[in-house]
Recover the amino acids of this structure.
């Protein structure tokens, strides 16, 4: 595991653990579940080498950032406000943005609520939230776990029992499990990550949201167990700005770890 120097910042009343390295134009990397900033360990060096300043926080409830106990502390608007407050604390007006999984969802909301703060956006795996929620039966099947995650207490017990057997199955035996399980074994941390889903169930079920005005690159991988390609392709219908799409073959949902050279090339070319 590559280690990056981090700093501790007080954001919205919580202590956040944040990578902040390099000079030049800022790039904000936002992870999803069950990750933290280390999921970007194969992108950060490439971005630094290309001359960017890289900011990669552990989001609330994740990594070494504080984890409030209340489900309501993880509502989408709060997660977006964390990013805005982080940029304000760092004196950054506008960023290039990359989000993955739940982090991609948060970044889409940031683009909709604060488009003036985003230069351009790379969405990994998750398309515009309205494109996602309006995809039919196949996407609902792939998203079965959202309902499972609502079973408070029982969900956590089932994921952890038998040496995390269900979690290993859920993650497709991905090699990153060696990093996830020790972190999620800390008191309250598995629940904190799942609370992202519990606090935003109504959103995930489908309100119609505005179109995005931020130029965006969407990347989807054909080994994704949780998301169908159509929700990314149809994101073009939810854009009032240029939208590009890249289909990546042979990578799982964690495409930035499985195919870092391709992902880094897509990101850097789009940022140029």
């Amino acid at each position: 595991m590559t280690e990056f120097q981090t700093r501790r910042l007080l954001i919205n009343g919580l202590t956040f653990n944040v990578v902040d390295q390099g000079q030049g134009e800022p790039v904000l990397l936002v992870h999803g579940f069950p990750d933290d900033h280390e999921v970007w360990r194969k992108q950060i060096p490439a971005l630094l080498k290309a001359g960017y300043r890289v900011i990669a926080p552990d989001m609330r409830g994740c990594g070494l950032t504080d984890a409030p106990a209340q489900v309501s502390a993880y509502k989408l608007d709060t997660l977006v406000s964390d990013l805005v407050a982080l940029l304000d604390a760092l004196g950054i007006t506008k960023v290039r943005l990359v989000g993955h999984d739940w982090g991609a969802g948060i970044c889409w909301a940031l683009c909709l609520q604060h488009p003036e703060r985003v230069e351009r956006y790379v969405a990994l795996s998750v398309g515009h939230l309205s494109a996602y929620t309006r995809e039919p039966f196949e996407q609902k099947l792939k998203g079965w776990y959202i309902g499972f995650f609502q079973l408070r207490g029982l969900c956590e017990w089932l994921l952890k029992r038998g040496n995390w057997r269900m979690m290993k199955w859920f993650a497709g035996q991905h090699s990153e499990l060696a990093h996830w399980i020790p972190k999620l074994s800390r008191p309250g941390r598995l629940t904190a990550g799942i609370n992202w889903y519990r606090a935003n169930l109504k959103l995930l079920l489908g309100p119609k949201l505005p179109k995005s005005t931020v130029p965006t690159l969407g990347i989807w991988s054909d080994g994704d167990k949780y998301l169908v390609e159509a929700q990314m392709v149809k994101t073009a219908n939810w854009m009032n700005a240029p939208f590009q799409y890249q289909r990546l073959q042979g990578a799982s949902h964690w495409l930035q770890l499985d195919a870092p050279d391709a992902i880094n090339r897509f990101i850097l070319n789009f940022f140029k």
